[in-house]
Amino acid sequence: KQEVTQIPAALSVPEGENLVLNCSFTDSAIYNLQWFRQDPGKGLTSLLLIQSSQREQTSGRLNASLDKSSGRSTLYIAASQPGDSATYLCAVRPGGGADGLTFGKGTHLIIQP
Amino acid sequence: DAGVIQSPRHEVTEMGQEVTLRCKPISGHNSLFWYRQTMMRGLELLIYFNNNVPIDDSGMPEDRFSAKMPNASFSTLKIQPSEPRDSAVYFCASKRTSAYTDTQYFGPGTRLTVL
Lengths: 113, 115
Fold this sequence. Notes:
The complex is a heterodimer.
Chain A: E1 4-7, E2 10-14, E3 19-25, E4 30-38, E5 44-51, E6 56-59, E7 62-67, E8 72-77, E9 86-94, E10 102-103, E11 107-112
Chain B: E1 5-7, E2 10-13, E3 19-24, E4 31-38, E5 42-50, E6 53-56, E7 65-71, E8 74-79, E9 88-95, E10 105-106, E11 110-114
Parallel strand pairs in B: 2-11
Antiparallel strand pairs in B: 1-3, 3-8, 4-5, 4-9, 5-6, 7-8, 9-10, 9-11
């Protein structure tokens, strides 16, 4: 059974810092990996999706990398802003045609003004 | 375009009562997912449908839970009878099956409290 772990569980940093969120998964037979953002009391918003054949994806100040063989992904946030404060969730879609996502428990990020 | 719509947003009920959660996916999306989020277990997949057909319900906790998708624009998740341990936020998500995108779009969730 796929297990997804996110480290750290919580992180608080001053505004302007670059930071890295980590995600690891136990079964490397994945179809893709996605990073989501969740704001309090709201649903999830997709940030980046990396196909299993890709190494990284970038969107603005966000960069996600994938090392499928080692079961790891990182989300890099450059020049953090208070508006980046949220919970960041990593999710993997399995290979073999299955479609549901397996999520990590998230990293709760606070950017101090 | 409207996003995924869920109702109600909040539900408080007493143990033993029937609860029905509703979801309207984004128009044109042909896959629909139900997830449950708790502090202890995080987000877990309960069931998903492709073209209104249930594909994988292995995440449904027990027979008290059932889900239907009578048409492409509506799905329900029913709990009967409800128990306090069912208290959680229930999310519905949808996506369009495509070679170019695989992003799931989530609704705002229904916060269920069973007393």
